[in-house]
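Need a sequence for this fold. Nothing fancy.
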């Protein structure tokens, strides 16, 4: 099982850059980049809430469950 992070897709749909989103959300570019590239092991609900607020989306638009084959 794997959790797929679609943050880059949502950022592209909303035409928001990594730098812009990180400043709006209040986390570093490096930490946001780790999340965006699916290398993060965890995410705080407060961070997820802030990202969803800034991108006007739902958590399910960013996180997706995919079964391994």
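Here you go.
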């Amino acid at each position: 099982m794997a959790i797929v992070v679609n943050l880059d897709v949502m950022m592209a749909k909303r035409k928001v850059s990594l730098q812009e989103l990180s400043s709006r959300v209040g986390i570093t570019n490096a930490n946001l980049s780790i999340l965006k590239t699916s290398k993060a092991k965890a995410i705080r609900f407060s961070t997820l809430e802030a990202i969803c607020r800034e991108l006007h989306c739902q958590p399910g638009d960013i996180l997706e469950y995919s079964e391994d084959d």
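For context: The mean pLDDT is 93.
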